Amino acid sequence: MAAVSKQLFEAACRDVPCGVILHPWNESCFAACPALYKGAVIGSAKFYSIIYLAQILMRGKKMLKKEEWIKMGQYYVRSTMLGILVTSLAPNISCIIRNILGVKFNQSTYLYIPFALSGLFIYLEPPSRRGLVINLFCNLVIEYYLKVLQRAGYLSITKSQQTLMFMLGSSLLFYLMRLEGDKKERTPLFWLFTPEKVRRKTEESQNVCPHEGKCEKYIVKGFASYFGVGLGISLARLILPKIRTPMKAISSIRGKHLKLALFFSSYIGIYRAVMCYLCRKQGVDSALYALPAGYAAGISFLFSPSLGLSIASLTAAFKLYSTILYEKKVLPSNVPLPEILYCLCQGTLFNARMMDPDACPSYVLNLMKSCSNGRSEQVYKSFAEAIRNAM
């Protein structure tokens, strides 16, 4: 469906009952809540189980500690609560606002304002994870507006341009991450790989590379371990949604499911190989080596191209740079700018799911469908029908 303009929405939905475009499974706002809440609980629990399984695989040996499992369990519960409250309460807020405004909708009060207000539940996430979620939603908003501009003919983003964006983002990101290496507390950042801090040359160790042991072993180990991580994530995404028919899910595995594994492994392998080469050639380690190493590693993006990932590399680099701006008092620390930004982003994205689904990022479509346990699809189908009837 094409983007729904303000004029079209006003003509089609202003006087439509909320039982049509908010909770079509039941006309009553109150009676619709049990099914809405039940779907939110089941859907959010399933969705975040896959997210946290991927993070556990990414953390590798760190998960050998009991404390890490306890922490991940607590984080899973808090993230699931965020999903439940946003998914279930935003429609309730929309119903309440509609009744306050004289039993009428407008384009802002339908979804944008309710989901922006429910964005305050981001405070359920601990500070160490909150920044990761905020960064993700900022990436998605940028992706959405780039698609809108591309559709309007103002720009064209090719695979080559996306690859270049990712290469530049990886270069800056790895450099800034290495600069943070000596800090006691690093900026929370969920990325594919956290590079080792810069090795200071001492009399005790003559190794100039940022690792122990032989370079060949270090490179091959990184390639193999991240190939396993990528393969594990791909298989989890394939098998978990079809857990009731595991044999059927396993039989559907194809060569295309290796793309993510090849991307992960080559990304880390190339980065480590370039780093070791530069350290050996120059005889000393430096954070600057991450610039060419990250740039070269970015070519692995061709295995699994994604506009969202190319944007994420640049915004993650900006997030690290913003930490420097906070430390230098350039940005005010007494105003919750990230949380305010998240609320605006959530309102924009979840509103786009209904108003402009063609440009809405696929992650948002999947997020809403999964966390509502399919209820969002029912809402969209009924909403689209109302729009078609008015055209």
TrEMBL record:
- Report the residue ranges that make up the Transmembrane protein 135 N-terminal domain in this protein: 18-146
Extent of the signal sequence: none
Which membrane topology describes this protein? Multi-pass membrane protein
Indicate whether Membrane appears among the record's keywords.
yes
On whether Transmembrane helix is a keyword of this UniProt record, the answer is yes
**Could you tell me where this protein is found in the cell?**
Endomembrane system
Name any GO cellular component annotation. endomembrane system
Where is this chain primarily localised? Answer: membrane
Q: Which UniProt keywords apply?
A: Membrane, Transmembrane, Transmembrane helix
- One matching Pfam family, short form? TMEM135_C_rich
- Residue ranges annotated as transmembrane are 35-54, 75-101, 107-124, 223-240, 260-279, 286-303
Q: Which family does it belong to?
A: Belongs to the TMEM135 family.
The protein's name = Transmembrane protein 135 N-terminal domain-containing protein
Q: What species is this protein from?
A: Mythimna separata
